[in-house]
Amino acid sequence: MTFERPGIQRMLDDAKTGKINLILCKDLSRFGRNYIEVGRYVDYLFPLYNIRFIALTDNVDTANADSSAMDMMPIMNIFNEWHSANTSKKLRAVHAQGAKVGKYKCTFTAYGYLKGNDEKYTPVPDPQTAPIVRRIFEMYASGMKPIQICNVLNDEHIPTPTDYRAAQLGKPNPFSKVHLWGNTTIKSILNNEIYIGTMANLKTSSISYKNKKRVRKDKSEWVTVKNNHEPIIPQELWDKVREIDSSHPKTHS
């Protein structure tokens, strides 16, 4: 539980401006599980703004400062944080185990694939877009630059990956107003090992159970499973693309 939640911020702003004088929650853990932050609000900020705080099931009520529940509040806050850390540890273990067996972890499948119905959500080639992925690799292997590939796809009015996904969901594309293929998309496809049947998971991680910001891991830390699913392109074509990449400077477009 983080104090950056929009609802919490609105409530705290209302408290500071005098719009409310009572904060009521089910228990301390529903307010927050960072014992330092919970203590800062309950022991310092709420009294400063004349806010009464009640956690029902924990019998915490700042109007009864001498109660045994108030005496126990620091210990309850520490336990709530320990529980949060322990739960996070267990979830990471579950995710790691799923990654080792090639379970697909992304919300949306990579362009060219559909999410399978098995317990691992094994990617299955999409008959609509898999041929486009193969064509992108073939055009690049023939010597075309990414910008030239973009021009071909745009001239043929082939929907971009995000446009195609939005159309499948029956919704407008919230990620783009241009609706054109770009170099970044082409390069991302050309560098994605999923197209040779390799599943790479756990590419990012949160900084900690307290800080949910995602950071990208070094490739050596990824969990990779080869021959995990049906490839869209053959290994020979993948190797040809890698050979071309190695012969060009990184700024090549």
Automatic annotation (TrEMBL):
<protein>
    <submittedName>
        <fullName>TnpX site-specific recombinase domain protein</fullName>
    </submittedName>
</protein>
<dbReference type="Pfam" id="PF00239">
    <property type="entry name" value="Resolvase"/>
</dbReference>
<dbReference type="InterPro" id="IPR006119">
    <property type="entry name" value="Resolv_N"/>
</dbReference>
<dbReference type="InterPro" id="IPR011109">
    <property type="entry name" value="DNA_bind_recombinase_dom"/>
</dbReference>
<feature type="domain" description="Resolvase/invertase-type recombinase catalytic">
    <location>
        <begin position="1"/>
        <end position="102"/>
    </location>
</feature>
<dbReference type="Pfam" id="PF07508">
    <property type="entry name" value="Recombinase"/>
</dbReference>
<dbReference type="GO" id="GO:0000150">
    <property type="term" value="F:DNA strand exchange activity"/>
</dbReference>
<feature type="domain" description="Recombinase">
    <location>
        <begin position="110"/>
        <end position="251"/>
    </location>
</feature>
<dbReference type="InterPro" id="IPR038109">
    <property type="entry name" value="DNA_bind_recomb_sf"/>
</dbReference>
<dbReference type="InterPro" id="IPR050639">
    <property type="entry name" value="SSR_resolvase"/>
</dbReference>
<dbReference type="GO" id="GO:0003677">
    <property type="term" value="F:DNA binding"/>
</dbReference>
<dbReference type="InterPro" id="IPR036162">
    <property type="entry name" value="Resolvase-like_N_sf"/>
</dbReference>
